[in-house]
Amino acid sequence: MRRLALPLALLLALGGPADTAGATVKRTAECQGDWLPATPTAAEVMKGEVAFLDLPPVKVGQDVDWRTNPYKNRSWGMVFHSLRWMGRLVAEYENNGEERYLARATEIAQDWVKDNPRGRPASPYAWAEHPIALRAPALVCLSRHVDAKWLKDSLSEHARVLGDDRLYEWGHNHGIDQDIALLGIGCRLNDRRWQDHAIRRLTKTVKLDIDSQGALMEQAPRYAIYVHDRLKVAMTNLKDCGRKVPGDISARWSKLGGFIMHSTNPAGFMVPIGDGGADHEPSGFQNPSERVKVFKAGYVYGRTDWAKPESAFYSIRFGPGTKYHGHEDHLGLTYYAQGRDVLVDAGFHSYEPTRYRYWTMSPEAHNVPTVVGARFRPRTATKLSRTAYDSGRQRYRLTDKAYGVSRTRSVLVNHDEDVMAVLDGAGGGRKVRNIWRFDPSLKLVSNSGGKVVLADGKFKVSLVQLSGCKPVGGQKVERGGRLGWVSPSYMAKNPATTVVSPASASLLTVIVPGTDQPKVSCAGGKVTVQTADGAVGFKASIF
After folding, report:
1. Tens digits of per-residue pLDDT, 307-348?
2. How far is CA 43 from each of CA 40, 182, 424, rounded to the nearest angstrom?
3. pTM of this structure
4. What is the pLDDT of residue 23?
5. Which of 350, 311, 346 is nearest to 332 (CA)?
6. Entry's PANTHER family (predicted)?
7. What is the 3-state secondary structure (H, E, C) of 508-520?
8. What ranges make up the beta strands (E) of 98-159?
9. Separation of alpha carbons 254 and 509, rounded Å
10. Coil, strand or helix: which one is 484?
11. Which of 302, 296, 269 is closest to 283 using CA atoms?
């Protein structure tokens, strides 16, 4: 690694910063991007210090060692080699005209180019597909103020890699970033071939990534916010480059906002399905008119109201087999009632290859039924076979063969008098067992006779289980241990009360928020639940 302390005069001789001190610097769209808040401050970078992913700052000094990855974290290494933190300095130069920021940015970028040739990079992250896509716009930004052969050559090399379809991520947010990057270089270097290739590919990828209903196909709703933001950047860049925005891109982008809002609970946070924590709070989107929505991509969402935080909300998963950012969560559900989370998903911890990360992706990390004694078959599709709903009550039936035999779940959600009822069963004479993970604030009060009560202060919730219209006991309750965990945000791991049912030929689970004394009775194939707000009746078979 060479020393990064080139004097400004030498930088100018090498084709570095061309502006003189005190001169007015033109602000450019390439450098004033919405990605800036996610980077370390210019003052921190100038001190040789960077912080990513809410992890403690790291000293990289003046002479950057591009092998640096103190946390051995894949995401950290990717962000480090994206060089967007270098772009922060160029943006600062545009804002205040101080050449020291541009000089330092030039030092960092030129050193990266020198120390990371494609055939012998200092780090495997240097030429991984996503860091390339994120780094290219930062280098385009730098090229707005630095006219140097090494920089033009690097941009051309980035374009060649970005344009290679063998390295392209079709139908994925990374592919969108790759096309934004290729378009940016093509526009900056006035190469229409690169522009055309990026536009053709982006149009196809958007149609693969966002379906005709506006649902994101990556199986993690929180990525819809990222895709929405990045497509806005892509469309703006197309216009700035004098190119027309394809209709398929603008149409699917406009529908994506509805999917984002349907995936958001009454408290304003996105439901943590797939690789997404419970701390993502979308803003600036308009509420759709429907209160119940079934997305054929594999999502059922329902709510009682859009404007009231105390309204009820639920999610149910089905659809194609797991891919991209999805988890093995089919037939899984979440439930929000009376202004708070009741049933929650284990969430997303990180992309690190740890045992816990892989556990969060497994069926056991979700509120699902499992078939006793049968082997789980990953990436199995699940069908939504029946629906019936109105504003006060919704019913669904889902089925798959994820365990080699028919696995069926029927769900009823009753509003006003809040009740959720779930009937699970399996074919071939097999027994089922189910898992129920509650919000971490809810702690065990009692567990007896097939009824489990949890509470958080004055708020109480009851779980009652029946089999063949009779109470079934033997529930196991964990908080921590093997199953009792949730990850509400990146790298977090918190204990949560989790109820595991006994094995039975069929299991009817009734969740009653707001009371520790629900009266649940079953006779003649009909269940009656006495809630704090009144009685609710339904068929024991749900349908």
Report:
1. 899 999 999 999 999 999 999 999 999 999 999 999 999 999
2. 8, 30, 57
3. 0.92
4. 60
5. 346
6. HEPARIN-SULFATE LYASE
7. EEEEEECCCCCEE
8. none
9. 39
10. strand
11. 269
